[in-house]
Design brief:
This protein is of the alpha+beta class. Among the domains are: about 180 residues, Porin; about 110 residues, 2-Layer Sandwich (60s Ribosomal Protein L30, Chain: A). It has 5 helices and 12 strands. It has an 8-stranded antiparallel barrel with strand order 1-2-3-4-5-6-7-8. A 4-stranded mixed sheet has the order 9-12-10-11. It is rod-shaped.
Length: about 425
C-alpha cells in the first residue's frame, strides 16, 4: 500500500507544478475513468488489499453536478475471497474549472464479501450488502482530455456478513462529448460561434436583435438594422448608420456628417443660424450684412454705415460730379436787385443739386449768399443771408435733410465783374 501512496503523492506534486486546466462541461460532458483501488476492511477480521480495475463513467448535468456509476474489483490480503463493488453516484465539483478540481461524491450500491460457489449472478455470494458511499477526490489535468484522478470514500455496508470499509482509487480519467459546447444543435465543427447558443441558419451564431444578420457579422448586434449598414439602423434612410450620423432622424449627406444643409452653404442645419439662407461658416451660416448697401460687406467695409465703393475700402469716393457742379461757373443762382426770389433757372439748378446730393448721401454742402455794392454794407450782408436761406429752404423742400445744409453770407465782400452777376448764390462742399 505504501508504494501506491507514494505514487499518488508524486503524481499530485507533478500536476500542481503544471500549467493546465480541467473541465468536464457541456462541451465534453462524459468522463470515463480507469485505475487501481485500495480497500481497507473495518471489522474484527480487518484486512486490506490492492486490486484492479477501478472503473467509472459520469455524465455532466450542469451547475457542477454529474451523475454516473463506478465498479471495482479487489482481493483482500490473506483471504481467498474476492471483493467487488458497484455503485450509482452523484458528483459535485467544488470549482467549475482549473488545473486542479476537487470534488465530493455520494452514492448507493452493492458490495460483495466472500465467495459462494453455488450462487449465480454478478455477485455470487451470500455476503453481499447494500452499501451507502460518501467521499472526496480530485481531478488534475494532464492534457485537454486526460486527467489524473485521486479519491477516497467511506463505504457503509452494515448487513450480516459484511463490513464497513474504506476505498482509495488512483487512476486516469478521459473526458469526451458530443462536440456541441453551447448546446444549440450545431456541432462545434460546423459552429461558427461554438461557445454561444445560436441558430442553425446562421451556422450556430445568434441573432440577438432579430434583423436577419448574425451577431458575428452585425456591427450593432443589439439594434435591428439592415445588411447595407452591416446590421446597424439608419433611421433617416440617408445611407449613414445612426451610430455615425450626427443627425440620425434627419436625412443628410456624408459631407455634413449625416445632417441636412437646406441652404447649400456647407454649414449643417444644426449649426446654421440661418438654415434657409446661404451664408458663411465664419458667420454661423448666415450671410455677412451690408449695412450701407454699397455691395461691400460690413466685415470688409472700412465705412460700414456709409455707402462707398470697393476700390475705396467701402468708403465713399470723391464726389466727382458734385465737385464739377460746384466749380462750374454756370452753377450759380442769380437774383434781382434787393430780391430773394429764385427764378426758373435757379429752380433747375436746385433740382440738379438735389440729384447729386442723393447720389452722394454723405456729402454736405454750404450755400453761400452774395450781394452787389448797391446800398449799405449792413443791408447787403442781410440780403445775402436771406438769399442763402431761400436756396437752403428750396433744397429742404426738395427732400434734402436740413442737417446736410449750412449757409454763409458774404454781403458785398466778394463782388464779380458787374453788379448783376454779384447778386448770386454759390455752392461749396463742406469738408468733414
Amino acid at each position: 500500500m505504501k508504494k501506491y501512496i507514494t505514487l499518488a503523492i508524486a503524481i499530485t506534486v507533478w500536476i500542481f507544478n503544471s500549467n493546465t486546466a480541467l473541465a468536464q462541461n457541456a462541451q465534453n460532458p462524459w468522463a470515463v475513468g480507469i485505475g487501481a483501488n485500495i480497500v481497507s476492511i473495518d471489522d474484527s477480521n480487518s484486512g486490506s488489499g490492492t486490486g484492479v480495475p477501478a472503473l467509472s463513467l459520469t455524465r455532466y448535468l450542469g451547475g457542477n453536478f454529474s451523475i454516473g456509476a463506478q465498479y471495482s474489483a479487489n482481493s483482500i490480503d490473506g483471504s481467498a475471497d474476492d471483493f467487488y463493488t458497484i455503485d450509482g453516484i452523484v458528483k459535485y465539483n467544488i470549482v467549475k474549472e482549473g488545473k486542479v478540481i476537487p470534488y465530493l461524491f455520494a452514492g448507493y450500491g452493492l458490495s460483495r464479501f466472500g465467495n459462494d460457489k453455488n450462487a449465480e449472478g454478478m455477485f455470487p455470494s451470500k455476503e453481499s450488502a447494500r452499501t451507502t458511499v460518501g467521499g472526496a477526490g480530485v481531478n488534475i489535468r494532464l492534457s485537454d482530455k486526460w486527467a489524473a484522478n485521486l479519491s477516497t470514500s467511506m463505504r457503509n455496508a452494515s448487513e450480516k456478513g459484511s463490513s464497513n470499509h474504506l476505498q482509495h482509487v488512483v487512476g486516469l480519467s478521459y473526458v469526451f462529448g458530443t462536440g456541441d459546447a453551447d448546446g444549440d444543435g450545431v456541432s462545434d465543427k460546423k459552429d461558427t460561434c461554438p461557445d454561444v447558443p445560436g441558430l442553425k441558419e446562421f451556422n450556430g451564431c445568434p441573432d440577438t436583435d432579430g434583423d436577419g444578420i448574425p451577431d458575428n457579422e452585425d456591427s450593432c448586434p443589439e439594434e435591428a438594422g439592415t445588411a447595407e449598414m452591416k446590421g446597424c439602423p439608419d433611421t433617416d434612410g440617408d445611407g449613414i448608420a445612426d451610430g455615425d450620423d450626427a443627425c440620425p432622424e434627419a436625412a443628410g449627406s456624408a459631407e455634413m456628417g449625416g445632417c441636412p444643409d437646406s441652404d447649400g452653404d456647407s454649414v449643417a442645419d444644426k449649426d446654421d443660424k440661418c438654415p434657409d439662407v446661404a451664408g458663411e461658416a465664419a458667420n454661423n451660416g448666415c450671410p455677412w450684412p451690408d449695412s450701407d448697401g454699397d455691395g461691400v460687406l460690413d466685415k470688409d467695409d472700412l465705412c460700414p454705415n456709409v455707402a462707398g465703393v470697393a476700390e475705396n475700402g467701402g468708403c465713399e469716393a470723391e464726389p466727382t460730379k458734385l465737385i464739377e457742379f460746384i466749380t462750374n461757373s454756370e452753377s450759380k443762382i442769380y437774383f434781382g436787385t434787393s430780391s430773394v426770389k429764385i427764378g426758373k433757372s435757379g429752380e433747375g439748378l436746385i433740382n440738379n443739386l438735389k440729384s447729386l446730393l442723393d447720389e452722394y448721401p454723405d456729402v454736405n454742402i454750404i450755400v453761400q449768399g452774395h450781394a452787389s455794392d448797391d446800398g449799405s454794407e449792413s443791408y447787403n450782408m442781410k440780403i445775402s443771408q436771406k438769399r442763402a436761406d431761400a436756396v437752403a429752404a428750396a433744397l429742404q423742400a426738395a427732400g434734402i435733410d436740413a442737417n446736410r445744409i449750412s449757409t454763409e453770407a458774404y454781403g458785398e465782400t466778394k463782388p464779380l465783374s458787374d453788379r448783376k452777376s454779384s447778386r448770386r448764390v454759390e455752392f461749396n462742399r463742406q469738408m468733414k
